[in-house]
Specification:
heterodimer, A: mainly alpha, disordered C terminus, B: 294 residues, mainly alpha, two-stranded antiparallel sheet, 11 helices, 72% helix, globular, ABC_transp_permease (chain A), LivM-like (chain A), cell membrane (chain A)
Chain lengths: 317, 294
């Protein structure tokens, strides 16, 4: 059994590396043009955002809609480091992610007393306050935006940071910490009664989620040469939430599929201009009406299921 | 002093408009626990309905207001029937996502149909200023119209909620949906009426904004919608006087911040106040603290 699991992990690792190498070669040889590589990188960033938000919304069950604000902290911090101090991307990424997790901590500690929609509104408020902060800060360009950020994000960076995000969050959820988080989601009062320190786990999950949102923001900033506060408003938070809900709250593979679907949809509809958002919103409504729990619900998609073997079905396999 | 009084007047006008939108939020939230993000766009729809009634059909203020209210009431009921009703038993977040979807649909549909340009609302009231208290306070006709309409609407709403059968049904459903159903209240119809009344109030706010700021455009509902929601939460969501108090507070504070500080801080300050109030009083200023049942 132990050997089997190890073998499976090894095979997954091989698959991850092969997928990377194939795309990398295709990009280098020019088979995948700049437009498609841009969207592939964006896809990785969106997956990071969706998976990290799913930790808070799906597994911890805390309704948070300020993810774009946390993302912007990572984006701006890292951009300042590379633009003003010529730091390499690795340093900017880590510092950006850390400052976002600090922001997540600042959001989490006071708002944890709030429940449900009230928590959602408070996190939305924090996200907007962060946006106004950058909007009024002239060293980062204010409302005009922060220009001239070096383009350092490559497919390699985006892909491996994304893989790292998924691995860390997946392992967190499958650990006893993650089990505690799921217990809090299912019934907070019962979890508290069973001796789970709910505050501690909430803060932990918020901080980890914010960390990866910050990393995603850093990659985002270094992919696009310019960032503006308006790109991180509550509509962006809704966008990330849409990916999570579309895939299924409480399913990591669901979040990945949701993020990929939203990115593809946006790319496919991009030539339609105003009509794009109308179609997007209609699809969103139809999806919710016919499958309100999302594509995957709380089940994970595994290779065993595809091959028809009875795998580790059920919650977060 | 003069400037301060003037800011207060402007703040109260803006606040009255927020309060009208917040009433719709609070009623819908009170009855089906949904943050109806599309409410701000209903307000946009109301503004456009009023705009066309006045500029294209040359109707007066009152008929335009009534037409706009009717259109929005129907739109609100239609949206509820198509998008929210099938999801009553689904997880709450799916309904919220649907509301966001409806909001995006109305905004972008509006951009397609009405074009993204800002339209100038025709002037229908004389531009005249009254000085009272020896010139300390200056009131424009627009300010007076906004206050009067707001007060009339509040009286009508108060009458509807506390003196009519449908109001009684609304209060019953918001107290306990299942028990109200068992007692013979038609829950679906009641929810439908709630949407109609809330949307009609948003329409009033839309027409008033058109008159007050002389402009309408398809994305005008986003920020006021959010601000009105803050106002509703601030006063205690589900409580009608709370929505009015919250709306006036947000309006006044915003005007003061814009008048004395930096207008860019306006949005941030509104949210900061909301968070502080929520931390001190999680159920809002007029809300009662409910103990959670195990």
């Amino acid at each position: 059994m132990e050997r089997n699991a190890l073998k499976k992990d090894f095979m997954v690792l091989i698959a991850i590396v092969i997928f990377y190498a194939v795309i990398q070669v295709l990009m280098q040889t020019g088979v995948i043009g700049p437009y498609y590589s841009l969207n592939l990188i964006l896809m990785c960033i969106n997956i990071m955002l969706a998976v990290s938000l799913n930790l808070i919304n799906g597994f911890l069950g805390q309704f948070s809609i300020g993810h774009a604000g946390l993302m912007s902290v990572g984006a701006y911090t890292s951009a300042i480091l590379t633009y003003y101090y010529d730091m390499p991307l690795a340093v900017a990424l880590i510092v950006g992610a850390l400052s976002a997790s600090l922001a997540g901590l600042i959001v989490a500690v006071p708002t944890l007393r709030l429940k449900g929609d009230y928590l959602g509104i408070a996190t939305l408020g924090f996200g907007e306050i962060i946006r106004v902060f950058f909007l009024t800060n002239d060293t980062v360009g204010g409302a005009k935006g922060f220009f001239g950020i070096p383009k350092l994000t490559t497919w390699t960076w985006a892909y491996f940071v994304m893989v790292l995000t998924i691995v860390v969050i997946k392992n967190f959820i499958n650990s006893s910490y993650g089990r505690s988080c799921i217990a809090i989601r299912e019934n907070e009062i019962a979890a508290e009664a069973m001796g789970i320190n709910t505050t501690r786990y909430k803060i932990l999950a918020f901080t980890i989620g914010a960390f990866f949102a910050g990393a995603a923001g850093a990659l985002y900033a270094h992919n696009f040469y310019t960032i503006q506060p308006e790109q991180f408003n509550f509509m962006k938070s809704f966008d990330i939430m849409t990916m999570v809900v579309l895939g299924g709250q409480g399913s990591i593979t669901g979040s990945i599929v949701g993020a990929v679907a939203v990115t593809l949809l946006n790319a496919a509809l991009s030539s339609l201009a105003a009509l794009r958002m109308v179609i997007y919103s209609l699809l969103l409504i139809i999806m919710m009406l016919f499958r309100p729990q999302g594509l995957f619900g709380i089940t994970e998609f595994t290779i065993d299921q595809v091959l028809g073997r009875r795998g580790r079905l059920g919650k977060s396999a | 002093m003069e400037q301060f009084m003037q800011q207060m007047i402007n703040g109260f006008s803006l606040g009255s408009i927020y309060a009208l939108i917040a009433l719709g939020y609070t009623m819908v939230y009170g009855i089906i626990k949904l943050i109806n993000f599309a409410h701000g766009d209903i307000y946009m729809l109301g503004a456009f309905a009023g705009f066309f009634a006045i500029s294209a059909f040359h109707l007066g203020f009152i008929p335009s207001l009534i037409i706009s209210m009717a259109i929005c009431a129907l739109a609100g009921m239609f949206i509820e029937k198509v998008a929210y009703k099938p999801l009553r038993t689904a997880p709450r977040i799916s309904m919220l996502i649907t509301a966001i979807g409806v909001s995006l649909f109305l905004e972008n549909g509006g951009l397609l149909v009405f074009s993204p340009s800002i339209r100038t609302f025709p002037t229908i009231f004389p531009v005249k200023t009254y000085s009272i208290f020896g010139g300390i306070v200056k009131l424009t006709v627009k300010d007076i119209v906004v206050f009067l309409v707001m007060i009339v609407m509040l009286i009508i709403l108060q009458y509807l909620v506390y003196r009519t059968k449908i109001g009684k049904a609304m209060r019953a459903v918001s107290f306990d949906k299942d028990a109200a159903g068992l007692m013979g209240v038609d829950v679906d119809t009641t929810i439908s009426y709630t949407f109609a009344i809330g949307s009609a109030l948003a329409a009033v706010a839309g027409v008033l904004v058109g008159i007050y700021y002389n402009s309408v455009w398809p994305l005008m509902g986003i920020m006021p919608g959010l601000k009105a929601f803050i106002a509703a939460v601030l006063g205690g969501i589900g409580i009608i006087p709370g929505a009015v108090l919250g709306g006036l507070m947000i309006g006044v504070i915003e005007t003061l911040v814009a008048g004395y500080g930096n207008s860019l801080y306006r949005d941030g300050v509104a949210f900061a106040i909301l968070i502080i109030v929520l931390l001190l009083k999680p159920s809002g200023l007029l809300g009662k603290n409910e103990r959670e049942k195990v």
